[in-house]
Amino acid sequence: MTRLHAANELLAKEVIARYPVKKSALIPLLHLVQEQNGYVTNEGMSHLAELLDITSAEVLGTCSFYEMFKLEPVGRYVINVCGTMSCQLLGADELIHHAEERLGIKVGATTDDGLFTLERAECQAACTEAPCLQVNYRHEFRVTHDNFDSLVDRLTADSKKNGSAAIPPHGTLSQTRQQIPAGRAVGAVAPDEVNGPPVWLPIDEPEETS
Amino acid sequence: MTLGGKEIERAAGFVANDTPKIVTSRFDVEDSHTLVGYLATGGYEGIRAALKKKPEEVHAQITEATVLGRGGAGFPAGVKWGFMPKDVWPRYLVVNGDESEPGTYKDRLLMELDPHQLIEGCLIASYAVGLSRCFLYVRGEMAVAQERIAAALNDAYEAGYVGRNILGTDFSLDIVLHWGAGAYVVGEETALIESLEGNRGMPRLKPPYFPAAIGLYGKPTIVNNVETLANLPWIATNGAEAYRAIGTETSPGTRMVAVSGHVKRPGVYEIINGTTTFRDLIFGDDYCGGMREGRTLKAFVPGGGSAPWFLPDQLDLPFEASQVGPAGSMLGSGAIMVMDDTTDIPKAAHSLTRFYAHESCGKCVPCREGGTWLERILGRIVDGHGTTRDLEMLLEVGETICPGEFPHAASERLGLEAKPFPYGMTTICFVGPSAFAPVHSALTLFPEEFRDRVREVSDDDPVASPVGAVPVELKGIGAS
C-alpha cells in the first residue's frame, strides 16, 4: 500500500489539527509517508495533497527541495558519511573511500541486496567526534575503518532478525510520537480568526484568543 | 600533562570543567532528559518564578540580562522580542533547532540531554510576549533529539507544564514538535518560517529584516535559537543581575563552544562569555589541551564554517564580538575548527566551500551560480589541474557575491593588516558569502599553498580563459 494506510491517515489528521494553517503539516506528513514506505511514493504525495487541500504539484515542490526525502526506493540502512571540514581534517575522504570498497558501491548507490545506500553528507553536528557518520540519521562517532566494517556486519545481522532492531529501517525518525491530550490542548486557531491578545496579558482590550 | 575537566560518557563530546554552568548543569545527571530528573534538579522553577510576575516584567528581566542570540548573529533576545508590533495578534514563537553550521553543535546536546530546559525556556518567552502557540523546529537529521523532545513534551503536557492553564494559571501554551528534512539554509530565520509553512525552505526577501513584524502566516513571530532559550529558566530563577555577574558587560553569561579538528581533546565546552580567549580554549588544560602531539597550530576558524579564518596571531582575542569583528572575523555560532601544520589548506577550504555550494537554495543567482563556480574551481586546483588564472577567477566570482573588500585577519608573517567584519553582499542571506569566506581566507592567508599548486599561464593561453570568464558582448535589442 503506497497511500497512507488507515492508522496513519488518522495520525495525519491529528498532526494537521495542530497547525493554524494545514499546509504547515506537509513536511511532517512527508516523513510519515516515507516512514510507511521507506521512500516518498507518488500515491503518498497525492494522498497528502487531498488531506491538505493543496495540489500534488505543491507537495512535490516542497518534497523535492529537501534531501532527506527519497523519491525512489533506497536501502534499509542509509549510511551518510560526513565530509565537511572537521571530519575532512580527520580522514573523512579515506573513510568514504573505504566505505565504497567495503560495500562494493559508489557514493549514491544501493547494494544489490537492498540493505545499504551510501551517501556523502554534510556537517552532522558531531564535529568533535570526527570522522562521524549516521545510519538512518543515528550517529556513529570516531569511525575507524574497522569500526565501519563491524558496523556493516552488525547491521546485516540485525536486518535478519525479526522484531525491533536497534536501528529501525530507513524512514523512521523518532519512534516516540508527540501526543497532545485533548483535555490539555489549547488548540490551533486560523491566524486571521485571532484578533486580540491572550487572556493573561493585562492589556486594555478585553479580547481573547482561544 | 593531564587534562582537567571530565568527559561525560552519556554526553559524547561534552567536557565538564569547573567554570560556572548555566545551560549544561544537568549534562552529568544520569536521567537529565526525563521529567523526574529535571524536577529533581530545580526544573520548572523558572516558569514558577516568572508566572508570579507580570509578562512585561519577565520581558524586562530578559532584556536586562542581555542574552545575546546564540544562533550566529548575536542579537539580544529581549530586544528582538520588543520589535513585535503592539496590537497585531496572534504572535508565534518558532524555536530554531535546525543546527547545521559546519563545526557547530551545542543545540543537539541541549535537545538530547536537557529537553525540559528548552521547553521551560519556551514557556518563559511565550508568557513574556503573550503568545499561545510555539513551534519547536528540530533538524531532520537528529532522530535522537526528536525522540527526547517528543517524550519530554508528552510528559510535560501530562504533568500540566504545557497546554491549557499551565500550573493552574490563565497562561496557556501549545508547543508543537516539528522537524525538517535536510536543508542547511532553513537555519536562516525567514527560510525556517517558509519551511514551517510547508514550503521550499528559501529565505524571504528583506526588508522586513526581522520576522518579529511579519513572520509565520504573516503574523508577528519570534525566532530564537535553542541555546538562547535554554538560558531563560536560569535567568528567571536567579535573576538578571546574577546572569550579568558572569562574563563581561557587553557579553554576559556563558556560551557553548565546540572545538574540533587537530587538537588533543576536541570537545563542547560551556565557557565564560567575553573573557575566555581562543588560546584558553585551544591550549588550556581545562579545555582542548593543545595541538596533537608534536604538531603546531596553523590556522583556525573562529565562529563556524562561515567565519573568516584566524591565525596564531589572533589567539589572545577573547570571546567578545566587539573585538573579534574588528580583527576580521565573527564569533558566529560558537564553533572553532583547528588546523595544524599537516593541513592541506586548499583542500580544507574546499570542504567548506563544497558545503555551502551544496546547501545553496538556489534563490539568489550569485550564490547558486557563484557558489558552484567557487567549488568547482577550487576542486580543480586541489586536484592539481588549476592555473594562475583560476586564482584570479576565484576572487572575481567572490566579488560578484561580496562586492568590495572582504574581511580578513592580520598576519605578521605576511605583513597584513586586519580588514574588519562585515562585508557587502548581493544575496538575501549569508549562504553565498559563506561559500566565499573560506576561499578568501585561504587565498589571503596562505597564498603560497595555491601558487605551488597551480600552473602558470599567460592571458593569451587558450586554456587560461575557460567558458564563462570571457566578457560577453551585448547584441541586439537594448544594446547600444
**Which CATH class of the domain at 77-160 in chain A?**
Alpha Beta
Order of helices and strands of chain B: EEHHHHEHHEHEHEHHHEEHEHEHHHHH
Spatial extent as radius of gyration of chain B: 23 Å
By oligomeric state, this entry counts as heterodimer
Number of helices of chain A: 7
CATH architecture of the largest domain in chain B: 3-Layer(aba) Sandwich
Query: Can you name the CATH architecture of the domain at 77-160 in chain A?
Result: 3-Layer(aba) Sandwich
Helical segment count of chain B: 18
Structural Rg of chain A: 21 Å
- Average the pLDDT over all residues of chain B and give the rounded result: 94
Structural class of chain B: alpha/beta
**Biggest sheet details of chain B:** 4 strands, parallel
Tell me the β content of chain B: 5-15%
CATH class of the largest domain in chain B: Alpha Beta
**Overall spatial form of chain A:** elongated
> How many strand elements of chain A?
4
Characterise this structure.
The complex is a heterodimer of chains A (210) and B (480). By secondary structure, chain A is an alpha+beta fold. Among the domains of chain A are: 6-63, Arc Repressor Mutant, subunit A (Orthogonal Bundle); 77-160, Glutaredoxin. Chain A contains 7 helices and 4 strands, in the order ααααβααβββα. Chain A has helices spanning 6-16, 26-37, 42-52, 56-63, 85-89, 92-103, 145-160, and strands at 77-82, 116-121, 133-135, 138-140. Chain A has a 4-stranded mixed β-sheet, covered by helices on one side. Residues 205-210 of chain A have low confidence and may be disordered. With 480 residues, chain B is of the alpha/beta class. Chain B has 3 domains: 21-244, 3-Layer(aba) Sandwich (Rossmann fold); 256-340, Ubiquitin-like (UB roll) (Roll); 345-461, de novo design (two linked rop proteins). In chain B, the strands form 3 sheets. A 4-stranded parallel β-sheet of chain B has the order 5-4-3-6, with helices on both faces. Chain B has a 4-stranded mixed β-sheet with strand order 8-7-10-9, with no helix packed on it. A two-stranded antiparallel ribbon of chain B has the order 1-2. The longest helix of chain B has 18 residues, at 365-382. Residues 467-480 of chain B have low confidence and may be disordered.
